[in-house]
Each structure stands twice: as C-alpha cells, then as structure tokens.
Design a protein that fits this description.
Number of strands of chain A: 2
Strand content of chain A: under 5%
Oligomer: heterotrimer
CATH architecture of chain C: 3-Layer(aba) Sandwich
Strand order of the largest sheet of chain A: 1-2
Distance between the termini of chain C: 38 Å
Radius of gyration of chain A: 22 Å
Chains: A mainly alpha (355), B mainly alpha (290), C alpha/beta (243)
Largest sheet of chain A: 2 strands, antiparallel
Number of helices of chain A: 15
Number of strands of chain C: 10
Helix content of chain A: over 70%
CATH class of chain C: Alpha Beta
Distance between the termini of chain A: 27 Å
Shape of chain C: globular
CATH topology of chain C: Rossmann fold
Shape of chain A: globular
Largest sheet of chain C: 6 strands, mixed
Structural class of chain A: mainly alpha
Radius of gyration of chain C: 18 Å
CATH superfamily of chain C: P-loop containing nucleotide triphosphate hydrolases
Largest interface: A-B, 48 and 48 residues
Low-confidence stretches of chain C: 237-243
Strand order of the largest sheet of chain C: 6-7-8-3-9-10
Helix content of chain C: 25-40%
Strand content of chain C: 15-25%
Chain lengths: 355, 290, 243
C-alpha cells in the first residue's frame, strides 16, 4: 500500500516538476544545459581516448567563452566583434603571473578576469565617451586587436614574437598541471557551470532586463529610466572578465601562447562567434548548444581533410555563418523553441481533452 | 635624414598609398550607397592578386593584361554576392550584417587556402626588379605603373559618378534610397551595380599589387583594416576623401616603417585610426557625401 | 510653481529653427493639450523637454529642478516620462517584460517590479496578451503598451505624443477613458494630439504651436474661437471635430 502511493507520489511530483520546467522556455533551456553539463561530467566513464577527451574540454571552454560574448553581443546587442582580445589578455595574464612570478594559476585565473575586465572598462569608456556607434565600435575593436597583436609582438615582457611556453615544472594541483586530462575537464565544467549561473541570474535580474531593453531599443530604454551608457559598459566588463578567466584556463590547457595565435580573427570566429551564433545569439542555451555543435564538428572536418588542406575548416565556418544568418537567425535554440511551442500546444490540448 | 631618403620614402609611401586609395574608394562607395561596412573587402583584393597569379602561372598572361578580366569577373562576383546575400540583410540588425560578411570573408579565405594552400607564393615577372631613376630617386617600374593605374581608375570612376546617368543614379541612391525610388531608379539594381564596382576596383588593386607582392590567403585582413582606416579618415562615403586618405596613410606608414621597422608600421595606421575615432570621427571632410 | 516649466526654449537644426522662444507650463494633476499643424515643432519640443535634444536657448524646470541638460533616463527618474509618436516597443520581449523595464525605474527588486508590471497591464486591459511578444501585437495594443511602459515608471507627469493616432473611434473612446483614469491617479499629462475630439474632451488647457512658436494659449472653448488658431490650424480640423 505504502509503496503504491509513494510511486504514485514520485511519478506525480516528476510530472509536476516536468510541467513546472516545461511551462517556461527559459527554465527548459537551463534544465537542458544542466543536463548536458551532467552528461559531460560523466563522459570520462565512457570516453577513454585522450584525443576525444581533449575535444570535449575545448568544447566546454568554448561554451564558457561563448557565454561571455553572448552577454555583450546577444543580450545587449553590442557589436563587439574582436572579443578575443579579452581572452588573449587573460591568457597572457595567467601565464606571465605563473612563469615570471610563480603565482599559482588558480589565482592567475582570477587575476586574468580582473585584468581583462579592466581592459573592458577602457574599451567601453572610450566607446561611450566618444560616442562610437555600431560599425565604428566594431571597427574599433578590430583595430584594437591588430594594435595589440603588434604591441605584444614587440613586448619582451610577454615573450614578444617568440611567445610563452607554460613552464611545466611540477605536476601539482597548485600549479594546475595534471597527469591526465580529466581534472582539466572538471575545471572547465566548473567554469561552465559558473558561466551558466551568471548568465541566467543576469538574464532574470533587473540588469538583464535593462540589457535586453537596450538591445531592442536604446532610446526607448533611455526614456524609461535606463542609463544606457552605464549598462552597456557593465555588459562589456562582465563579458570581458569572463572571457579573461576563460583565456586563463585556455592557456593552461594549450600551454603555449603567441600574439598571431590569439590576436587572430579566425580564432575569434572559432571560439567566440561560431558557437553562440549557431546556437542562437541572445538565448540562454545558445552558447552551450552551439559549442557542442561547433567544436566536435570542426574537429571532424579538420581530421577528415587532414594535412595541408587547412582551408576546409574556414570554408565550413564561412558557410555556417552565412547560412545561419540567412536561414536560422535565431540559431538552433530558435528552431528548438518553435518545436517546443508545438509540443506545448499539443500537450495543453491533450490536457484539456482529458479534464 | 638626407633629402634623398626623405623623398624616397615619400614616393614609396605614395605608391603604396595609391593601392590603399583604390581599395578605400571601393569600400567607401559601397558604404556610401548601402550603409554597410564590407567586412569582406580585403578578401576581394586578395582574390584579385590570386587571379593575377593564376593567370600568370597557368596561362602566362601578364598581370596588367589580367586587369580587365579581373575587373569583369569580380564585378560579376560582387554583384552576385550583393544580390544573393547582402541584399537580404540590408535592413537587418547590424550584427547580422557583420556576421554575414565575416562569414563571406572566412569562406573566401578558406576557398583560396584550399586551392592554393596557405603557403606564401610570389609571382616573378620579367620586370619586377626594373627601376627607373628620376631626380635621384629609384622608382620601381611596377609600382610606378600601379600608382598611375590607381590614379587613372579612380579618376575614371569619379567621372563616371559625376557625369553619367548611372553614376548620378548611384549618387542619388546614396543620398536617399526612397527619393531615388520615387524618381524611378531601380534601387536594387544600383545596389548590385555599386557592390560590383566596389568589388571590382578592389580586385584590380590586388592585381596591381601582384608583381611585387607576396601572396598569402590571409593577406586580405590587413588590407581590410587599412581600408577601414582610410575610409574613416576620409569621411565615410566620401570619394575624394578616401583617395586622399589612402595616399596620406601610405606616406605615414612609409615613414613609420622607416623609423619603427617594417612589421610594426601597421601600428601607425592603428594609431591614426584611434585618434580619428576619438577626435574627428566624421573624418577630414566632415559631413557624409559622395 | 508649476510642475513642469518650459521657459523660452529654442532649437535649431542647421539653418532651420524648429522651436523658437517656446514656453509652457503644466501644473500638478493638470492635462495640457499641445496642438498645431504637422511640422509645427511639437515633437521637437517633447524631445527637448525629455532630454533627447539639447536646446540652443532656454531652460526646462521640473518640480523646481533645472533639468535642461540632463539625460533622458535622469529626467525619467525625477518623474517625467514620455512616449513616442511612432511607438517603440521592445519587439522581441514579452509585453510583461516590456512593462517591467519601466517598473524597474523605482525598484531593484524583481518581484516588486513584476507585480507593478502586472498591475499596470491589468489597468490597461492587456492581461490576456501579457506573455505575447511585443512584435506580434495589434496597433491598438501597441499604443496601450506604450502607455503601460510609461505608467510603470511611476511618473508625476507623462508626455503623450499622439497616443491616439491611427485608432478607430471605439478604441479612441477607450483610451480617452483610460487617460481620465490616469489623471485620477494624480498624474499630470501633456498631450500632443491631432484628433481634436480627444483634446477637447480631455484638456484643461491648450497651447497652440505653429512654425515653432506659441500662437495661442487658453481653455479649449477659447482656443476654438481664436482667430489665429483657426487660420493656422483649426480651419483644416473642422472636419475632424464633426467626426
């Protein structure tokens, strides 16, 4: 008797939970994301190859970086194209602190966030103070990237043109150097989780509401009491800081950095832009879904057409971006949303029939 | 610095500036008419130089003879891109426009890299090292020809815009799309035409570069950036501004290259760019006009 | 002192003088109508008062404070909110989220803002479309949304820019009633309108603007008889009053 009711209760509460989640598209997206993170966390159980594990790790960190760009470009609609400068700044911060000052990368990640965030303040300040709109802002960020690349090429403190190799002294936790790739996966997943939570809280908060309003209509937002300059700057700084932290992890994982590698538009397309755009810019699940579709696929392309034909991945990205803009401007998440609506309508219809 | 060196650098800068000018004129034309910043612009220049390379290595055609072919080919290509792709995002959010063009740019680099490999290439024409000496200055024939070709093409384009009926139609659309439409101008046709012309002359600039330039699929990006700088300096949409701006940047870069070293000279353009954006974003010529 | 004092503002665009030595005042709880032919400078005046334009001369005072060169959002925080002639919804956001943007003006708390937004949405009779995306709304609902957003900011005065334009007679009547209810909440209103029926039934006083200058001011029955007004504007509008 007791078992009967308890099963019924647990099925009932499962149904309640499901309908609570599915009644809200935002909640559905987040649940999906957490589920995916959970699955990814379990991946070492069934994926033993270090090669594939490596792809997963990069996918996860791409998703994290994607979230950072999503906040600036997706939520706030800012044309920050060369977002990679914040990742690069983060990478350099972490590696310089470690190589030159022996500071543990755990602190280095935080420092990367701060330094990248400061760069974000500078970029935002210049943009807003001098009223750089739209295209000018996009061009400004690209020019900044080129300038930084040249600067870093000449700056010995950060290794100049030679770049910096991560000093593999000790395998230790405090150095964030591990024997296998698995710890890296969990650090990356940890960051992703933080990113997802930050993104979602932002989205639901007053700040998020204001950012979306600014994206939709700057003047209308202004007329309703939104200090648009302040919030635009806030979105850039948050996005920059997150990207900086991601950059810190990125360099820990790839262990090498040089200016042409990171101050690079192709890398910008691959890490920063492709994921969120394919996944759906401005959505909650977009960056993660996009990264999952982006990185593994592009690795397959690279692998299949291995050797010499490096243009293949660029062709794929080019086609990806073009077709997404033309045919799927809301990305995969947009497509899923339409499906979701259909399912919900049918479900509601059925529920009404039953009752 | 001796006067000879001073003038030598100046002239070299001018020659480079001619190419910048031609490229920038193409970009500013597209912007002036469609209010779209062609983020794939440098790739059209890159295609031009690769067309010259292809023509030369496969068929033995001299690059200068390739110019008309390149012009027509790239004109058609540009018009097609406009009709098929750009047209669809003309009224969309600028982010979509930029992403589309970044996609086009990435695609073009990828295609060239796929067929020609990422290895740097070079053409070796018989006259590539030929110089003439004038007033104590050594002038590379190829670059001299390139400079005057740029001048000539820009002039022809200018006359076309100013005096022909189609040219006036283009200028009309750049001033007001709706008014032009009301006057019976087929605006979509003008858009395709303008994009085609802008693409074509940029490709020709690439062809002109061929005799002395190293070819690499990603070379377009640097030229894109410089073209942006020039266009902003000369006021976006301003034809003469773009041309003069190109020459100015070329010269400034030449001096920067002399004092700071070749690989850093691009920082001169970057600095100018940032300074303009901060202090005179409307460019040298103030208000937008074609 | 009046709630809103506009003193001798002048606004030029290149060689064109849009508004010249223009003054008006609105008292607390008052409804002031601003009428005039197209291009007379009404929206320009709105833009100056709400902080979207800087005047070349003159001052604007609100609640005793000088607000002349403040930003629009600062002015909104002080209690003056404006709507736009061509409505500006946040297209991809739901109606509720749209209104919440306004509601956050006075609070940082999400629950509070959500409740306020829901209340305003109910007041505007829009409960059934609360979760609809703004871009899918009909014209009538869009106009209401515009007012809802403004109301949610908890203003002391709302500047309504042609809120009734393009509405059918029944919809217009409903909005007129709504505006009356807004007044009952002790919110002053500055109405720009072309639909004379609306102005006549709502306005306590009317200011008439023509070629950027004030040509008449007074109570509605005085205005309709004013010769200058009839010559400049009302002559064409006789038809509207009948219909």
């Amino acid at each position: 008797m007791t078992r009967d009711t308890s099963t019924r209760i647990s099925i009932g509460s499962l149904r309640n939970w499901l309908s609570a989640v599915l009644s809200d598209w935002d909640r559905t997206q987040m649940t999906l994301c957490y589920l995916l993170v959970f699955i990814l966390a379990l991946s070492p159980l069934f994926i033993k190859s270090t090669y594939y594990l490596g792809i997963i790790i990069l996918t996860v960190i791409y998703a994290f970086i994607g979230i950072s760009w999503n906040i600036v470009a997706g939520f706030t609609g800012q044309l920050l194209i060369a977002h990679i400068i914040f990742l690069a700044t983060g990478s350099y911060t972490t590696i310089v602190l470690y190589n030159t000052y022996g500071i543990t990368p755990w602190v280095g990640l935080l420092a990367s966030g701060v330094v990248a965030g400061l760069l974000g303040v500078v970029v935002a300040f210049i943009t807003l103070r001098y009223g750089l709109k739209m295209d000018y802002f996009a061009l400004f960020t690209i020019a900044l990237m080129v300038a930084m690349r040249t600067l870093f090429l000449k700056w010995d403190f950060v290794g100049g043109a030679v770049g910096m190799w991560f000093r593999l002294i000790d395998i230790s936790f405090s150095n964030m150097i591990f024997k296998t790739k698995i710890p890296y996966l969990y650090i990356a997943l940890g960051l992703l989780l933080i990113g997802l939570i930050v993104q979602y809280s932002l989205y639901r908060s007053k700040i998020g509401n204001y950012l979306l309003a600014i994206r939709e209509d700057d003047d209308a937002a202004s007329a309703l009491g939104v200090n648009t300059s302040f919030y635009k700057m806030m979105s850039v700084v948050i996005g920059a800081a997150l990207a900086g932290v991601g950059g810190g992890f990125y360099i820990m994982y790839v262990t090498f950095v040089e200016p042409p590698q990171v101050f690079n538009l192709a890398l910008n397309v691959e890490i920063v832009m492709a994921g969120p755009i394919i996944g759906g810019l401005g959505s909650l699940a977009g960056p993660l879904l996009g990264a999952l579709l982006n990185k593994p696929f592009i690795e397959i392309v690279r692998g299949v057409l291995a050797g010499g034909r490096s243009g293949a991945t660029l062709i794929v990205y080019g086609l990806f971006l073009i077709s997404t803009v033309l045919f799927m401007p809301q990305g995969i998440t947009g497509v899923m949303y339409r499906l979701y609506l259909k399912v919900i309508n049918r479900f509601n219809g059925k529920a009404e029939e039953v009752s | 610095m001796s006067p000879e060196i001073f003038f030598q650098i100046f002239v070299n800068g001018l020659f480079t500036g001619g190419i910048y000018a031609l490229t920038a004129v193409g970009l500013t034309l597209i912007y002036g008419v469609m209010i779209i910043v062609n983020f794939a612009h440098g790739e059209f220049l890159m295609l031009g130089i690769y067309i010259a390379f292809w023509g030369f290595t496969l068929f033995g055609i001299d690059p200068y003879l390739v110019i008309p072919i390149a012009f027509l080919l790239m004109f058609a290509f540009g018009a097609l891109i406009q009709r098929g792709l750009v047209q669809r995002v003309l009224d969309a959010h600028p982010l979509n426009q930029i992403v589309l063009l970044v996609g086009v740019s990435t695609l073009l680099v990828g295609v060239v890299q796929f067929f020609f490999s990422a290895e740097p290439k070079a053409m070796h024409v018989s006259y590539e090292t030929a110089v003439i000496t004038l007033w104590g200055l050594r002038l590379s024939i190829a670059r001299l020809v390139a400079f005057f070709a740029s001048l000539l093409i820009s002039l022809l384009l200018y006359l076309f815009l100013k005096f022909t009926r189609t040219g006036k139609a283009i200028r009309a659309v750049s001033q007001s799309r709706d008014a032009a439409r009301l006057m019976g101008i087929n605006v979509n046709f003008i858009y395709a035409l303008t994009f085609g012309i802008g693409t074509a002359i940029t490709a020709v600039a690439g062809v002109l570069l061929a005799p002395n330039h190293r070819l690499i699929p990603t070379m377009g990006q640097a030229y894109s950036v410089i073209a942006f700088v020039v266009v902003v300096l000369g006021t976006m949409g301003n034809f003469i501004g773009a041309f003069l701006g190109g020459l100015i940047i070329g010269v400034v870069e030449a001096y920067a290259g002399f004092y700071l070293g070749g690989d850093v000279k691009i920082i001169a353009s970057m600095l100018i760019f940032i300074l303009i954006l901060l202090f005179r974003p409307a460019g040298l010529f103030g208000r937008k006009n074609t | 002192m009046a709630l809103l004092e506009v003193k001798d503002i002048t606004k030029r665009f290149g060689g064109l003088i849009a508004v010249s030595d223009f003054s008006l005042s609105v008292d607390e709880g008052e409804i002031l109508g601003l009428i005039g032919p197209n291009g007379a400078g009404k929206t320009t005046a709105f833009n100056v008062v709400s902080g979207f334009y800087r005047p070349d001369a003159g001052e604007v005072f609100f609640g005793g404070n000088r607000i002349t060169n403040l930003r629009p959002d600062q002015i909104c925080k002080l209690g003056l909110t404006r709507t736009f002639q061509i409505v500006k919804p946040f297209p991809q956001l739901s109606v509720h989220r749209n209104v919440m943007v306004g509601a956050y003006n006075r609070t940082n708390n999400r629950a509070e803002a959500a409740k306020k937004a829901s209340d305003i949405i109910d007041f505007l009779g829009m409960r059934e479309v609360s979760s609809v995306t703004a871009s899918s709304l009909s014209v009538a609902y869009r106009k209401r949304l515009e007012i809802a957003k403004a109301l949610a900011t908890d203003p002391k005065i709302i500047l309504l820019d042609e809120a009734m334009a393009g509405l059918r007679p029944k919809e217009t009547d409903e909005l007129i009633e709504l505006v009356r209810q807004i007044r009952e909440r002790k919110i002053a209103l500055l109405l720009v309108e072309h639909v004379m029926r609306v102005i006549m039934s709502l306005a306590d006083r009317i200011v008439v603007i023509h070629h950027g200058e004030k040509i008449a001011e007074g109570e509605p029955h005085q205005i309709v008889q004013d010769k200058a007004v009839i010559d400049a504007y009302l002559g064409e509008v006789e038809i509207n009053v009948a219909g």
